[in-house]
Amino acid sequence: MTKPQNFLRVAQLHERIGSVLGWLWILGSLVGIGWIVAAIVGDASWFIGIAVFLGAQFTKALAREYNRAAQKAIADGVTAGDIGIDAGGQAHPVNSGERVSSRAAIENAFSWADDVVGRYAALLERQTGSPYFPEGALPASKDEVKQALLVVATVRRGTGHISDGDLHIYKAAYTRLIYATPDERATALDRSMTSVKTVGGVANLPNAQLRDVVRGVASAYEAQGVDQDQREAAALPAEFDARLASLLAIYRRGAT
């Protein structure tokens, strides 16, 4: 298990790297624009100016990712109950007496969690055909998406923005993670589904092609195991309820 100090150390490291990259973005953008202007009015190289400017934009994207990673490290500590946020907004390891009052820490993790949940929702909206989708398409790891869904559901329910009846949306999204499958398996399933769609349905497939489709689907399911999927799917709703109840209790106690 990761120690509280390690959560903070990782967050601080990512935050510092993100800060350095942010300054490089600003300086690179200014230099690139200046070089382009010099190319317009003088003999400076267009190629160098454009290359420096584009490099600065790439640095900006890297800075954003490191800042997200810092937020995620804090969120990991929060959901583990090992990190708290003081009145000045600074993260710190919590002691046993502080573990029941980490409402501020949960709220601090909301920005990261809301971003992950938004990107996960967009992924689900794009899904057609087979319910399975590659794990590589997730905005974060399975466990991180679970944490994000729990944090967002906790804050929105705890602040009254949603009712108990609305929580089923988050539970359904949590349970849908059962369909996040290794990329190779998802590719095999998608290839089989595409073969069926191309000819207008299973009834239109020649026997030889139908056998290929069946073998493809069977091999994809064997790669991870249908029984394992079914057991995990049955456990996820109860897992969501238990973890949400725990976080809501922490969040509500923090308001007293």
Word description of this protein:
- The chain is mainly α and 256 residues long.
- Among the domains are: 99 residues; 42 residues, no CATH class.
- It is built from 9 helices and 4 strands; from the N terminus they run H-H-E-E-H-H-E-H-H-E-H-H-H.
- Strand 1 and strand 2 form a beta hairpin.
- Helix 2 crosses helix 5.
- The longest helix has 38 residues.
Helices, by number, come to: 9
- Helical content band: over 70%
Strand order of the largest sheet: 1-2
Question: Low-confidence parts, pLDDT < 50 over ≥5 residues?
Answer: 95-101, 201-205, 223-227
Question: Roughly what is the average pLDDT, rounded to an integer?
Answer: 74
Reconstruct the topology from this structure:
Layout: H1 4-41, H2 46-79, E1 83-85, E2 91-93, H3 103-108, H4 110-126, E3 133-134, H5 142-158, H6 167-175, E4 180-181, H7 183-198, H8 207-224, H9 226-253
Parallel strand pairs: 3-4
Antiparallel strand pairs: 1-2
Brief rundown of the structure:
This protein is mainly α and 256 residues long.
Name the features.
single chain; 256 residues; mainly alpha; two-stranded antiparallel ribbon; two-stranded parallel ribbon; 4 strands; 71% helix; globular
